[in-house]
From TrEMBL:
It comes from the Eukaryota. Keywords: Membrane, Signal, Transmembrane, Transmembrane helix. InterPro entries: Nod_factor_acetyltransferase. Residues 499-568 are annotated as: Disordered. The lineage of its organism: Eukaryota, Sar, Alveolata, Dinophyceae, Suessiales. Residues 1-32 form the signal peptide. Residues 517-568 have a biased composition (Basic and acidic residues). The chain crosses the membrane at residues 90-113, 185-206, 239-257, 434-452. This is Acyltransferase 3 domain-containing protein. Coiled coil: none annotated.
Amino acid sequence: MPLRNTTGMACSYMRMALGLAALSALAARADASPKVNASIASACWSEDRDVSGGIGLLSLRARKEAASSRTPSLPTPEVLYRWGTNHHNIVLLDTIIYVLGFAALHVLLQAYFKDTEPEHKDAKPRLDLLDNAKFWMMVLICLDPEHTRGGPMTHFFQFHTRAFAFISGWVTRNRRPDRYGVQSLGQQVASLLLFVVFFAPVAKYIEPVTGGRFPKSVTEYFAVIYHTLKYPFSHTGTHIWYAQALIFWQLCGFLLVSLQPTAKILLSCLGFVFFWLAPPIPFAVSTALVFLPFFFIGQAFPIERCVKALPELGPRSMCTGIALMTAIFFFEEQLPFIRDLLSVTNRGPDTLEPSELGFASVVQNLGKSTFMSLTSFVKVLVFLACLCPRSASWYTDLGKHSLYTYQLHQLVINAFGVGFIYKMHDLAEALPLWAYWLPYLLFCTLLNALLASKLVRWSPLSLILEPTWVNQLINQVIAADDSEKKMLEKTLSEKDAEIKRSKEEQASLQKKLMQAETEKQARARAEKEKEEQIKQQEEKIKALKKQTEELEELKREQDSPPHPSHTE
């Protein structure tokens, strides 16, 4: 792309961003201050489990203040704290970051990373599109405000989980409870268990808020593993709940494989409502049921046909997508009754006890989650259709291995990045706010690219995060069973062959006996016919002899002289 076009595009994006920022400021200041249900908010924020994206912004902030004695050298900047708690500034900040971030991303892709092989563009549009979407969704996960102290909370970030559920459903749409499906599910279970076994104690130890220590006994070690699996949201150092949910989704797909897609979606929606009203179920089952409709919708959604019907991705579609997403964002944030509805938790019954909040609050949370699901589904479609590149690029292969980033990014941030992020907070007073968020966006992109790169995939971590050797073991076990089965089948076939040969020999003997009997009968008939021929010849000889005698007698009579009496 020429530099002039790139510069012009960037300028147009900047003008659009400034206009949207001005509209956002006017709308935010003209609107009345939101009324928040303090009792529900306090009940949600006091939980030690996930509220919005892992542990929840306000829950994280409260625990950081409680644990401030552990980090006295890192005070919370008052300016950033006010920005993070003021709703008007949240709307303004999110709009600026949202528009500028995607505008810069589009300029970068079009200018430097555009696919130069036009024949490859339509070769695998669905795979390239989904892998690209997985990469940028992982950037949003790394950018989740739970990693920042005092950072603003925005519902723009909240659609990435439903997008992953949608994409996971489409990727696994053809899996059946056969040998291949069981192997894939076994690999996911092995990856989850291995990650928890090796990294759960480490994640608990390096968690910057609660902290911890390594287990000192085998019993304590297995207790940590079991607690991490049973209550995944209470362990902020790992993100294993999605792996648990993915296993649960595939099991549901195997159980409902004989149903039509519409029936699966309806059943998942009924489960979504039921488990909002029921008490929490451990092992992330309740949360998995909240997102199960997106998984089944992804299995039934015709992505290939939609991609072929949509126009090519360009500045026009990019601007359309940004406008639609911004409109949805303002629709969520600006209406007062929706803001009151959005003041409660966003995840599911893993963070709520229906008996604690009452039926009215639970119904309100159910309506809120339903609203978030609908708007998130629209965001997913807008992102895939208008914002996500469809051709292969440098990050397509990285998106195929987004599992590495998902499982490792929290550990890396807790181990190495927390101090750096806190130092950036300290510098936020002297810098414009965009000068903090845009470098953080770049940091999350680089972190995603690093953790999904071949440098990590070729390391020993691949034995844990992508245990293909489990399939090899399963194949060896199946091959051993197959070899035994083949040996048994071979023995049975040999016995069958022997029986068949004996039967053939008996049949051949019977055939020979029958042939001998037939030959004997034929010889008997031939001898009888020969005897009859001999008799006939003897009778002919007798008849000839008789005729000869008669002829001789006649001849003698003719040759004898006449009698004298006769002559006289």
